[in-house]
Amino acid sequence: MRRDGLQFKHIEVFRAVIAGGSASEAARLLGLSQPAVSKIIAQAELHAGISLFERRQGRLVPTPLALTLYSETNVLFSTLENIDRIVARVIKSEIQPIAFGAVPLLATTLLPRVLPDWRARSGRVLSLYTYDAPSLLSLLAAQRLEFAITVVMQHMQGLASSQIIRSPVYCALPRDHRLAGKPVIHACDLDGESYIGLSRHEGIQSGIDRVFIAENVRPDEVMQVPLMAAAVRMAEEGAGIALVDLFGMHVARSDRLVFRRFEPAVHFEYCAVWPENRDADFDRTQLIAILRRSARQMLEQAEGMVGIARNETDLQTVSQGQEHA
Quick one: pLDDT at residue 175? Predict the structure, then answer.
């Protein structure tokens, strides 16, 4: 016998029975009679070809398959609920929030410096989503995000981008580390040193790996920590040396780590990305300009942190020389 597919009313009633715990409660929630609910559930089981509920003492107890179906349809119904909210905003002439994406490091360092003031000036509401770079690019390509800031990866068709900042890579060392007294850390200095790797999934660590290979250097990679902020925390606890950018420096505790220039120079690039053929209902150019300005200010602060560290080292060297004299 040919089975017809489940219709929306079947899924709606099925979910109401599970959520309400009984056919009578589902009937109350949906504004139906209890016999109508029982009839629709019977139709759903017939069309699906499976038992959704077991009848126990007049109650409908969901089967394991029913619970799986309920879980899988959560995504569908959460999307429908979101559509309802959008329709309500349209009816009230409300503007939909901007779907804004960012890698976690920027969401906790750069954006808090930018978005509150920009939101106050623009009057726009934001929905901020944090994902890794590949996920952000996929969501942008699917037009589920309007705008994102992320570390630069391979170009994806259908996306436009604009550079925000190109940050040097700095060496983060515990203050008592034997290399902390050097003003510049060279790749060869890290040979055999305990080292905390970054994300190869996003390509961040790959650029550093190329330097290590070219310089014939083999650090002892004790762990790989895709989140740079977490790598900084690991370095603070003495797990090893980390190579971080200006944003990583801004989550560090200055009483635990010192930062030195790293050579040969490596850079991480961050950019704003958006769907190429999608018009923005906000001033995208202005937002990018503000992000760039704030990122440059943070870079200047990062350079100052390195400079202070170098001056401290120089003073220590002078002091040691005076003692020996």
Answer: 92
